[in-house]
Amino acid sequence: MGAVVALHCAASPASADIGLPMLAVVWPAMGVLLGPGVLVEIVVARRLLREPSPVMAVIVANLVPTLAGIPLTWLCLVACLLLTGSLLSLMPNHSPLLWIMVPFYVAWLPPGVERNQWWIPVALMAC
Length: 127
Fold this sequence. Notes:
With 127 residues, the protein is mainly alpha-helical. It has six helices and two strands; from the N terminus they run αβααααβα. It has one domain (20-126). Strands 1-2 form a two-stranded antiparallel ribbon. The longest helix has 30 residues, at 55-84. It starts with a helix and ends with a helix.
């Protein structure tokens, strides 16, 4: 009975703050920007290269690297995040190292971002 009381007294509220996967933020923007980028490239390919029908080549040349590259880049950034550990969340707000560490957190903003709201726009700009 004493152990139950001790555990109850030592317990803290549960937290489901797992951070923000930036891939979920970037992926929709990528989808929106891919279309206009492909259209511009088709127009440029027709005018500069005098290619009569560059549509499929441009679509494939943009779609494959985008669909493969964004998730692969995200995975590499998550690996960097895991290697650097939780250093960013342990640093004081006024530390100059904070600005150096933020790019490592582009892929996944760690819990505790509410105390440093500037991480989100910096992470989005780094994407």
